Protein 1
Amino acid sequence: MNSSISKLLYGGGIFFDILKWLILVVIVVTIINSYWYSIFLVDGVSMETSFMNKQMMLSDKSFYRGEADPERGEVVIVKYPGDPQNKQYLKRVIGLPTEKVVIAKNKVYINGKALEESYISPGTEIFPSGTWTLKNNEYFLMGDNRPQSNDSRYFGPVEKRFFVGKAIFMIYPVFQGVGLPRYNI
Amino acid sequence: MNKKSAAKVAKRRSGLIGFYSRKFIFFCGVFLLAFLAFNFIQTNKYSADVESINIGNSNQNSVISVSVDDNGIIRLNGKNVGKTELVNGYDEIRLPVLDNGGEYYDQLKILLSLPKGSAYKTKHEILAIHGVGSTQTYVNDPDTIEYDASQVSAYATITIVAQIPKGVINHPIIDQIINFFRGLEFNVWLLLALVLPIITFLYMTFFLRYLYRINKIDSPDREISAPPMALPPAIVGALFRGKVGSREIAATLIDLARRKDIVILDRERGFAFSKGRFDDRLLGYEKILLSKIFRNNLTSDRAEIERRINNHLYSKKMSIVSAGIYAITTRLGYFKVNPRSIHAKYRLIGILTFLFGLTAFILSLRFQLISTYSSFFWVGMMVSALIVAFSASNIPLRTQIGNEALSNWLAFKKFLSNPKPIPYTPTVIELFEAYLPYAIVLDCEVEWAKRFEEHNFIIPEWFLTDKVGLGLDEFCLSLFPIVSYVARSFAALREPGFE
């Protein structure tokens, strides 16, 4: 064997050992990323001004796997029901199962009561208008940037089986938890 | 030596800011990992998707045909695009028929043909985003559901959804099995990932216990007060343990010292090894072990040995040392086959299974084969493969001759570990030195040393120390950590398959 190749192998067979650890780390990180916690980038403007485009966040993917149900105001990651394999969206839970959601006169009504949302600027236009009655396992999701969000107003309520997880931390540019807004309902 | 080369040597020997290739490559690996993680995050995006697409104004109409076969295969314009999925007791079709098509359609009609006239019993829905004027769905006839969309923009995504009642689709057996696994929950897959290695571990444990039982050598009643054969301690260790480890290397070092081939120095600032006499009766593996310690120097101190250890993850020389000990032990007829080849075979099986599991793991994550959670199964398989690979080195391979020889050595071990003190003779300390390497490979060096506690101890001439008035206990406390440290470090440098 050429002496330089020999030196490379025995000074060393480092690549094999590094590869061993690399595989272990990649597997562990991949599993954690796939099933528990994942760092992701917000891609788009539909959650502004709460979450800006290209902001880095941490999601908890294990949250909805058990008995826990999404709560109103939680920022969730859902598979788009029209293309669950390829499209995943970041939206806020607005309507809960069995509730009646009405959008009219730039307001969201839950079971007939106007929902006060602290993260929406006063005077924001909310369209199109409509009425949705949610089934037992359905949720109504909307983006915080109401005029520019593709959400349940267009693709309808989303079943719980399409929920991937919820955003729990903002990592960059600021490091802070994602809190639950207070509602009047 | 000129100034330039002296500086070069000094730089190479500097322990404080020394350049250790192993550490350098390790940190390169860490940075590579960080780089990959950064790139991964760049691609791991969740869309805060917007709905602000301008609808065009050309005048195209289009019809798309989708059909479902009896066995659940979905065809889009005649082309197989997947299968129905069992969801909540329904066979569900959830098919994006148009995604960023690039063309505007005034009217888009999608005709879904279902088997067995099941259209009226089927729930249907159309999901349309990114610029669609209006949508509607209705049943055309018992076999067909029509999905209509108007003013469809070039960026639109249109998905048809249909939930066919159970019994309409006849799933082949293989699909039924897949559907069964698909229905398993996260915790079941997680449990599978734990159960699989546990079963493998239990199987390997019982398998090895069985092999040990049929190869069992009863502790002999007799005691032999001298080594039954003139064998190097490392060979005795390989016979006793079935593998070559750090004890065999440590015993070889002390044996070499006892034979005056090396001198062990225990100094205030650290230990060192010094070359002794020239001996042309050294065994092959002993020569290589010495060349590993000394290279071309006459003395090798702690810093130098550590540098050699730190610069290598694997050492060809140490692998050859192991291979040499195994080869002699096998040649003497003590093993059926060279243990190294058996260990390598099982290790290969383990590594190939591991790689298969790893490939399946990656594919299951990428393509979500069977279930989103099925990757846990492959993780379980990988762990099982590692259990097989690592337990391989414990497979006993001794022959009948090996068992008989070992029985004699166990009788000698009984003598070494006998708690009775050795009676005084003028050569009693020489006896201690002579059998010390065997006591190390037979795991009874402490018991052997205790037998000499009552005698005045004279430090062997192959062990030089700064300390004065060293008794037997202090001698052992000085010598054992040195040889044990060097032996363990050298043993860890062997390549996989040479352990």
Protein 2
Amino acid sequence: MFTENFNAGKLQTINRRMFIIGVFKVVIFTGIIARLFSLQISDNKKYLTLSDKNRLREWRLPPVRGEFVDYFGNIIASNLKVYQLHIIPEEVEDFRHLMLRLKEILNLHDNEIKRIIKRKEKKKPWETLVISENLTWEQFAKINYFLHDLVGAKPVLSISRSYPFDDNYTHILGYVSEVSENDILNSEVIKNNHVPGLKVGKTGLEKTFEEQLIGVNGVQRYEVNAYGKRIKQIDYQEGEHGKRVKLTVDTEIQKLSNKLLKGLAGSISVMDIYTGEIVAMQSSPSFDPNLFLFGISHDDWQLIRNNPLKPLVNKTLSGLYSPGSTIKPIVALSALENNIVNKDFKVKCTGKMEMYGQTYHCWKKKGHGIVSLKEAMKQSCDTYFYEVARKLGVDRLRETALKFGLGEKVLQDTFSIEKKGLIPNTKWKQDNLGIGWVIGETLITGIGQGYTQTTPLQLCLMTAQLANGGYKIYPRITVNENEETYEEIKSLIEKNKQLNKGLLEASEGLFSFAKGKKHEPLYRNFENIKLIQEAMFASTNEVRGTSYSSRINDPKYQFAGKTGTSQVKRITKKQRELDLNTIDIPYNDRDHALYIAFGPYKNPRYALSIVIEHGGSGSSAAAPIAKKLFKLILDRHEVREKIRKEKSEKI
Amino acid sequence: MQYNSFNTKLTFFQKLKNLDLILLICIILLGIISAVSMYSTDGGEILFHTRSHITKFLIFFPMMIVLSFLDIKVWHYLAYLFYAILLILLIWVSIYGVKASGSQRWINLYFINLQPSELMKVAIIACLAKYYHRVGLDSVNTFQSVLTVLIILILPIMLVVSQPDLGTSILIASSGLVVIWLAGLNIRYFVYSFISLLIALPFVISFLKSYQKLRILTFLNPDRDPLGAGYQIIQSKIAVGSGGLTGKGFLKGTQSYLNFLPEKHTDFIFTLFSEEYGFVGSLCLLLIYIIIIYRVFKIGSISRSYFAKLYCYGFSSAIFIYVVVNMSMVLGLLPIVGSPLPIMSYGGSSMLATMLGFSIVMSAKINHKHLIS
């Protein structure tokens, strides 16, 4: 037992010390309350935001890309729903484990895994890695089933392009492929609508109309749990379907063009000679754009890239060819317009012509004898055009050629790859080559050789503007609602014709220019145009015409044309003596075959140009194609007219 | 012998009347709040945790009342035995214990996984209280006394640290130290040991397990590794902070029901509560704890026997420490060390220990006029 004193000392100590602890407790509890206050009251907003950021996830849905339709409303570029698998490397706990699991589930090959890892290393850890762009439904379902074990993997429902007509429209539409860094940097619209796995246009119209086609992406907001599993949808914002783009092209004619060019390197363009609508435009060989949708395989790519016929080049727009004899209508017209010659001007062709110590050959060794302008066009007499060109001079020729659409882009900015070509004159040579023009160059320019370079589409436009009576037209490949109709253009042209004849008051003529596009005459004397048209008719429909064998007698389909054979290589004296057949010449040395035509002759509506690379001669390789085309073009014309009338009635 | 007049036997009804009503109400309140919170952690359903927690409360609470009818003398008598049994159990655990998530803390008793270290938190207080009950004030600072006390304290701590369970060993150590402080150990010793601890700290750290070091580093800068070690602290702070003044409401704590909160049943139960009931709710909960701490202190202050007084003061401070360590931890004021919130947190041993602790307090209240010879 203890004494009271002893007890009191202990009590005093314990109470004093308990008091100290008590004070301590008050201080600490105050601290805890202060902390609670600072978290819950002062910083409440901050933590509330963080908590929402935790639980709310935004899913940006891929925008639905606008379709392309042809003139008749057939969809030529559509959309497919595809199942994809995305991964954000940053969110993956164990990348190796995930890849192993995915390998099992998707039956991936070791090489594919390696490629995925390679791609991963190139990306930032927070950038989405697309593991698979096109899963089957079974694979997609399986992924969803095992999702709890695949931390960081995201099954995604996406949209992919589809080209139902395979290689028929490749050169017009181009193709889409995964967004590159440059695409995002260059386009605000792409940047704003970007979602992982988005495809944007890389070439062709897909690229040109990207900003209209892309649409606006939808947004889904979900509440998710700590493992990223969606618990419930909070908000859904619907996206906007991209704009549908309607083309002036006729799929049937396009398909035939593609068929006719199978196995050849070349190009076909068909144009409405009044509205400038491009009815068909094909460059051959083509390739299947669907191959590019989910990443083209190495083998397929090599096959396309190494094809000697160069499928990647759009020959219609960026293929540059010497026009050969197809330039002769312009040479003749220019000479007539400048009153250098008249329709009765005659030249004696002996098969060759000596000038300044040089010999210039006509394609016909024996010569054509005495030929008039019309006869020279019909038989494509080179000697005649040497003489005409010599008298005309290259500078005046250039003026006419430019007027009719050569040396300029036909579709302006619609295709970035379109080339201007080259129509030379004396100044051009002095400026660019630093040497003066020599008269000999004028002579060969007169038969479409030398420096002159044109694209097939330019030749088509040139033909169209000759065919419509010599009036300017504005080619286009898309249908715009506010574009002037065929009837408006026709009446405008009619007024222009009257005006030119001086039968109409100038003021009235000017008044009708209100819509902006003048369709002004490109000629000085309408009779000259008529003469050229007649000469082209003769060339196709009269005996000894260069494309006589490709004529159609039925007036419904009857067309007028001009052949062209453009030399690729200078012909040596020896070769000229040998006079080899096309088949005996190495492919790359063979002449290009060209043909321009318009029809039906009585009331022309369409013009076309055909170029077959290394095809031999225009009359044998290119003109027969026109015969087959015109049949279809003019049959389709009736359907096209029906659609056009329905549409204009609606308006 | 005059004191003996107070040591008359109390009748059952006198004992019943002597029970501390406020303390009982507070404990019941905590029981209800914890059941509701547990219901919330189960996502608004009565699942395993809720059922188990309620069952344990319904068993241990009556047990606490029954045990409080034991005379304080009995508790005094049993204190060493209690300590000794637990020490043996701790040794047993270190050899045959049940392992879970990398540490060996439990004895499988089939109906409950007993965690002796939790009970040791109470036993150490009772044991030291009994020891100092006998020792005179002038003997407290003798070498023999200090050594004895140190051995009593260090033995269980060593065993618990080796489990490893840093949280519980810190709580055992601090409970013991508080009792030693209250008993009147010269302040010099505290200063000396504090200084020597500072010197020893680098060596201690080198002995820490890598995950423990990581926890300390993470505490110092939770953003160091937000998805890894810092995740718990960050998510807990977000949950508490987003609760605001009045909270997100019952069952509406998004942080918890979407599973962003770790260990929400046990160590982070306060976070869940705080998210759902906000600043106001948290203050109320804190107030209940403050009342409990104060009541236990008050019972100590009216107790006539030194054992009861020292025990109550010690236990009151221990509850304070548990609450403060747990709350500071989930509020990001202390590193994450496993430490449950008394009664609120899920865990049978912790609840059993707390209830046992309250039994002794209650017994001290009933017999507060008694002296122990």
Protein 3
Amino acid sequence: MILDRPRAAPAARSSAVSDLSRRRFLQAGAAAGGGLMLSMSLPLATRETQAADGFAPNAFIRVEADGQIVLTMPYVEMGQGTYTSIPMLIAEELDVDLNQVRLEHAPPNEKLYGNPLLGGIQATGNSNAVRAAWQPLRQAGATARAMLVAAAAARWNVDPAACRTQGGEVHHPPSGRRIKYGELAADAARMPVPANVALKRPQDFRLIGTAAKRLDTPAKVNGTAVYGIDVRPPGVKIATLAQSPSFGGRVKSVDDTAAKAVKGVRQIVRLDDAVAVVADHMGAAKKGLAALVIEWDDGPHAKLDTDAIAAELEQATLGAGAVAENIGDVERAMAGAVTKVEATYQVPFLAHATMEPMNCTVHVRRDGCEIWVGSQAVARVHAAAAKTAGLPLDKVVVHNHLIGGGFGRRLEADGVIRAVQIAQHVDGPVKVVWTREEDIQHDMYRPYWFDRLSAGLDAKGMPVAWNNRFAGSSVLARWAPPTFNNGLDPDTTEGAIDLVYALPNMHVEYVRVEPPGIPTAFWRSVGPSHNVFVTESFMDELAAAAKQDPVAYRLALLDKTPRAKAVLALAAEKAGWGQPLPPRVGRGVSLQFVFATYMAHVAEVEVSKDGAVKVRRVVCALDCGTVVNPDTVQAQVQSAVIFGITAALHGEITLKNGRVEQANFDTYQMLRMNEAPAVEVHVIQNSEPPGGMGEAGTSAIVPAVTNAIFAATGKRLRRLPVDPKALRQPA
Amino acid sequence: MAFSIKVNGRTHGVDVDGDTPLLWVLRDVLGMTGTKFGCGMALCGACTVHVDGVATRSCVTPVDSIGNSEITTIEAVGATAAGARIQKAWLDREVVQCGYCQSGQIMSAAALLASNARPTDADIDDAMSGNICRCGTYSRIRDAIKQAAQST
């Protein structure tokens, strides 16, 4: 999903990144403390048509007098390695060591820190931090370096071109003089900002492309890392809560007599649709919560169940939708096809189940409000808290923290709003911690989607017509309404359109259907989490209908997308595609271009006689353009693959009588060590602009697994999660 | 009721109900937040500590069941031989992503290594499958345990 991306052929899509460099301005000024501060102005991508009016800077580098480089970090660390890869960009151009860069969380300020690839919203998501930062942060580093060099050259009265930089110092080799950046900071701040500074050539990279050690790891292995849930402002109380078990329900009555008698319980807070127990510690809060007798008015969605939602979506795919892509003349091509293939697919609601349960600490005072939280969207949280508290923005302070798993969940402000509502009734700071059951039953869910596809094949079995109409929720329409236009948004359709394959006649429609009552949200790999499963499964069906090998069939459609062809060929080769396997073991393949990264997977699965699926091996080949931190690329694919297999094999949120049926890790299961396959990652190196890496593996692995199940058993799975009952070996 | 518990070599008095899980005594009463809350039902392992050296889910361990046992948490496991080797291997292998589950992973792995100097893959599966990692760092955890075992 690139919100402002122009509709273009896939090969041209990465141009959106390089365009940014032409619209970049840098300003310098004396920072507090006498250092050099560079503020980088990047007009928001969505304002492309406006004149260059006022430069709202969106990132800051500070060179302090002691030589410390401070990066005010607009992106938040949630495991994806951004606290290392983004500083690498600056350190590369500044010629400092990575350990000379210190990070500060950016405060909520969309004018300064809005994400240019998310329509200017200050958020970390959609696998785009490196993509968004690639040009502007290197430019900021290079400009700072040039000004430091200019300051040194002026001081020494030498030619700047004769100066070199290394390790945070300027050198003048002819005279042997050297000076530290810190000593130059005050002078450099008075230097004019150079208009054009050349960036390093890829062959001169010293950090980019090397496996840098993550900067956030040491504190995470000894218990000192502070996540939102770990904050302890003086006097803080701990609260936990019960929210209406049916969406849209209300509290009818509360008997809190027994709860108040629990040792350590201080207060019961009753809201319209939730009850919270405030206590000295979470043990007492949970015990108090269990002792509450709450009667609920289940409200308008008391009878809601998943089957009814699926039926409504299925019905919707029989009507017309908004046209997301139209190539050629599908109707005519279909009429002339030799073979016709039809299928419907559906994917379930999914919870995020971040390991750190939802939590937020709030101190509401008469004249202000202080918030401690781990958020992927800190400005959104800031605004939501201010609105809920009835305070102006400048009276609300948000402290952002490390995130114990985001996956899209922490792009939402609901947990902060809830905590502020509770804190308004509490004298002093209160940390609201959701139980795991609340976390799963009051998530905002990856939408349920239903897809109806048909294709026509020619006499050789190749696709001449491709039709896809799907129905489900648009998360973006709620989260960023201006991005939803003419019935479409760029996330919901990513992976369903702009396919890598040469399909001469193609028609894709989307029907927006919002499920009643159930909040939907972004979930790791977002739109592609659904679309790639569907398109890559269906492509496999076409290969089967044509009685062709799934890899060879795809390769024949990739002459116009050589980078896609290369990753597919490499994955197949490394996986030993075509080599014999035992009975009920199969290989499956998938190919995608999403998040500006080409990726192919081969999964090898074993299906037991009782239908249990074990993923034995995963081979991934990818081309993400320039690799910033190769170890992070490996780690993110390994991570995303486990996340995807978890969903494919176990992931399903269902509703009955308006209530989510899953509650904890016994009923909403995660892949565990004994089920986790080895994941091999092969990277095709080149100097194209970097693509996203945090999510791509999740969408890519799911169809590879189900296609492998087809190869192992002959059973085509068109609905997730995998149902072992359907895979039992007939006696 | 007041209890006296020994954590990382120090004795603390705490005044809570006897059925209060150790997890909340550590985190909310004693302020030792390295031990994490994940599920409250011993399903995910994020809250793992050592009780007399044995990996124990603190979220279901009532404080009145501890008696004179010695509790070790992530804050002090580095002072044990196995814990130090595990932490080093975690850094060398760059295991961590979001990191939230890793306190529990490290406590489970350190207990495994302390009791089994050369764990097999099956031993690792047995000892570690109770610890969920949502970031999916399992293969690096496996490699790191093997490295730590080889470093003796």
Protein 4
Amino acid sequence: MAKLSLMFESKVVKEVPIGGKPIGIGRSPDNDIPVDNLAVSNHHARVFFEAGRLVVEDLDSLNGTFVNDLRVERATLHDGDAIHIGKHRIIVDATGDAPVPVETGRKKAAAPRINETMVLDTKERRNMLQQAAAMGERTQFASGRMKVPTLVVLRGKTDQTEYALTNKLTVIGKSAMATVRIKGWFKPEMAAQINQRDDGFYIGPGDKVPSVNGAPIHGPLRLKDGDVIEVSGVRLNFIFRE
Amino acid sequence: MQIVSGGVSDVGRVRTNNEDCFRIVAPLQLFVLSDGMGGEAHGEIASEVAVETVVKHCLGGPDNHAIPLLGEPRPGLSSHTKRLASAVLLANKKIFESAEANPEQRGMGATLTAAWIHGSKLSLAHVGDSRAYLLRGGVLQQLTSDHSLVAEQVRRGILTLAEAEESQMQSVLIRALGAQQEVEVDAEEHVLFTRDILMLCSDGLTRMVTEPEIAGTLQAESDPDRAAEKLIALANEYGGADNVTVIVVRLGSVPKGWFSWLRRGARTKNAGNNGSSGGK
């Protein structure tokens, strides 16, 4: 059976057999070949059989569909053709059992293994990220990256008046090893903790349950710029400092 | 600090070989986990070289100055952390050189996540998408950043967490041991408290089992080996798409205080530390 192979670099990421129904390609997850790249439209293109020929049709995508580097609205596909959508390449196998031609000189693996872990080299990685960033609608990271997440002490006795959050884990408490050291008697060793995750900073309880903007938290809570944290008689302001 | 630990590795339900490797060196309180990649048996070679190299380099001890520290000087970190980070750099070098020398090993690589506990200080060194978690106060906190393309895109605000979890690019790493001559190693230190639970795991666990489930299992099962087994059983129940390896380390306090002798009898049960064990 004819099939489409979604490639990433020289590896097959996904293979889809082409049957009676058209194959949808796009960013939306309801596509047969979902491609998660912001350069790709939600419903970007489709591939289907028409009168015995295999056809690709662009669905008025923003950035276009390319077959062998030519932008097409609609084109007949032949065995070995490459469809380019965004940064992705989809190889057409119209013959069925013949192996998918791979352009690189590397020895082809016995069978394409989806989910195989691979590593990008520095250049590939820079390209991918730049590409993604250039396309990104949410490009605030460029300025966001320059900002330092900071805790400013508004009230209470601590060893510093301000703390830059540079660690994955910040401990607030009386412990000598705590980042934010609370002073005074009967203070908990570890009152609360802040975990830096990929998508932001999360405050979680320690020996005490902290409040954020006046409300006690239920489990880890993602901090927003300007949030006020209160725990064990200390009031802290979480801000992104320029 | 009293420490009990355990670890288990499993091939999963889909793969036929286990490319994960781990080692617990109880006398050193050193815990090392690696997930190998590369065709044929090369992923297994890579992860084993990674683990062995790190363990050997640390066995030399932080006070053994005959063993060189590699990489950029990292002021502010303890000698244990520096030793651990340079051990990871050395492992990268070994895997890379082996792949250069043996063309059939081209493309092999490994992740590495290592934890070394010294007193109440935890040293972590990390490359790749295996993870270290700390369960404290009922909250599971991730101590490592995945060096994967999708995680980097989340950090840069290009993808949301939900989009990243749906992505087909989850297996694409931006850093791994053996991929290049030089590698940047994440090294960090944390202070540990009694009742903390540390867990190291390969992505075979975190792609299958949710964090609340991990937290619940770690809290419910006090025996580290059994906790690891239960987590692996969960991953397999949900499909076991990849090799799964879990190391669980529980920290307890040595009883002290005026009336601690009253409770001492009840505590001896947990005092045993499992010997150095390894797994494939």
